[in-house]
Each structure stands twice: as C-alpha cells, then as structure tokens.
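Sanity check. The docking grid for FE2/S2 (inorganic) cluster depends on where the pocket ends up, so I'm generating a full predicted complex first rather than guessing from homology. Inputs follow.
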Amino acid sequence: MTERSLSWQAVCPVAELVPGTFIEFRLKEKAVEPEGMPLTGFVFLERGTPKAYLNLCPHLGVELNWMPGRFMDADNLFIQCATHGALFKPGTGECIAGPCQGDALTALDVRRQGDQIEVRLQR
Ligand code: FES
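Predicted complex below; grid placement will be based on this.
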C-alpha cells in the first residue's frame, strides 16, 4: 500500500454547516486506487455534530449523489446511493439495505478549527 500523507484540509466555514446541509468537497489527498483519482467527500451535521464521509458507494465505487448536495432518502432518514438505492446510517455509515448491505461508507476525521471545518483521511 502506498504511504499517504494525512493532513487536515479546510472544507467550509463552520457557519455554512447548518442542519440539513450537505457540503461537498474534493480531497487534496489522492486515492490509492483507482490510480490517483481525486477523492470527493461530503460533510454534514449529524445530531449537531459534524460528520464526513468519502463520496464513494461501497457497491461500485461511484459517487453517491446525482444532485449536488442531495444525499438523503425521501424520508430524510438515511443517506441513499442514487445508483442502486443502498441506504446508509448517517451516524455510522453502515449500509442497512441494498446491494452492499453490511458494508459501510468510509468515514473521514472531521474537526472544527477556528471558523473552519476540516477533514482528513483516517489512518
Ligand atoms: S452503486 Fe451504490 S448501490 Fe449500487
């Protein structure tokens, strides 16, 4: 496995991260696979706490959303993959229905730093 540098990256001002908002970003770190593809992710508030995942469905490795900033299912309970409809728990990323049931979204480290939200790949 290629060594990755894991540095924090500011993705949005704290003030923009309001309940119900999903903010997308492109990670500066490169993925190990597929070959150097840039990674995207999203951050949102889960019960008031910032939570971030890679925007990558564990089923086929595609981005979860078709519409910018739209990640939740119609009932606003689960993160939903727009391709085949897999449902993920917002708090843990666990897939509870769909073709990748039992798998999970890849969580990112997330923190407040001054007036910015920052993320980084987890070790
Ligand atoms: S690509 Fe996400 S459920 Fe199939």
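Relevant for the grid: The pocket of FE2/S2 (inorganic) cluster is lined by residues 57, 59-60, 62, 81, 83-84, 86, 98-100 (CB under 6 Å).
Also worth noting: The domain at 9-121 is CATH 2.102.10.10 (Rieske Iron-sulfur Protein).
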